[in-house]
Design brief:
globular; 274 residues; 11 helices; mainly alpha
């Protein structure tokens, strides 16, 4: 709410800033607003105006063997990669936050490097390493590299959650006879669970949406949903791709809602702790 004593220039900037933000938001959401209605188009082309309403492209997605296999592959790779990223990233974040040691900054940079290194480089590098080991064209190889791509998100979110963590609680648990593993699972993990889940959701979204690394490592039997979409765009643009894009958009929206709920829950927990 603008203050009553604001100058004319401040009032102009107040409304202009909100108009600019609204235009940026519309610009970012316009591709989604355009593609979603086309997934219900009765025509076999992605064209406006639409000739009619039809669910045939959603039916094709759920009945086509290629699309179903791609979806199942994504449902196999992404959850396992997420669990592995959470299992590796959470202890790493606790160790980096709690202990100071030489080379800590270098180790942190290495852990978060998959977040900033171009995925093409990651794809080429992992292929050169995994191919001689027989891991290319396998589910294990995909899960490992997707987990590596998700670890930086877990490390970042858990480290942010640990900034307000009172490690005296861990010392109190140790004074009562709890070993470090028990103290971690009984004290640390429940309190940082919102950060762990948030990082896991980011890791899951990264894995589920990854296409470049998958192009290098996945064989025909490991084709994931993004790779199948990429192949469909390259060969012929089918409205089924619009249906899949709409489904992925809904999934992303639900993830954002969950992240916001976790953020508010974490704030309430910190407030109660004070």
């Amino acid at each position: 709410m603008i203050a009553a004593y604001a100058s004319p220039l401040e009032r102009v900037w107040y409304y202009a800033f909100r108009i600019i933000c609204g235009l940026v938001l519309v610009f970012l959401m316009l591709p989604i607003l355009v593609i979603a209605p086309l997934s219900f188009n009765a025509d076999s082309f992605l064209l406006y105006p639409m000739s009619g309403f039809s669910l045939q492209w959603y039916e094709e997605f759920f009945t086509s063997p290629a699309w179903r296999q791609a979806f199942m592959n994504s449902c196999i790779v992404s959850p396992f990669a997420t669990l592995l990223a959470m299992a590796l990233g959470t202890p790493a974040a606790v160790g980096l936050t709690r202990i100071d040691f030489p080379g800590k900054a270098v180790l942190t940079s290495i852990l978060i490097s998959p977040m900033v290194v171009p995925v093409v480089i990651v794809g080429v590098a992992t292929y050169l390493v995994f191919a001689p080991a027989g891991l290319s064209g396998s589910y294990i190889g995909l899960i490992l590299v997707h987990a590596a791509l998700g670890v930086p998100f877990v490390v970042t979110t858990v480290s942010a959650t640990l900034q307000g963590f009172d490690f005296n609680l861990v010392r109190a648990a140790a004074s009562l006879g709890a070993n470090p593993l028990t103290a971690f699972f009984k004290v640390t993990l429940p309190l940082v669970a919102p950060g762990v889940i948030s990082g896991g959701l980011f890791a899951f979204g990264t894995s589920f949406d990854e296409v470049v690394v998958t192009l290098f490592l996945a064989g025909p039997e490991q084709s994931t949903l993004p790779r199948q979409m990429f192949a469909g765009i390259r060969e012929n643009i089918s409205p089924t791709i619009a249906a899949v894009a709409t489904i992925l958009t809904v999934m992303s929206t639900l993830m954002l809602i969950t992240l916001e709920w976790l953020r508010r829950r974490s704030e309430r927990t910190r407030g109660q702790g004070r």
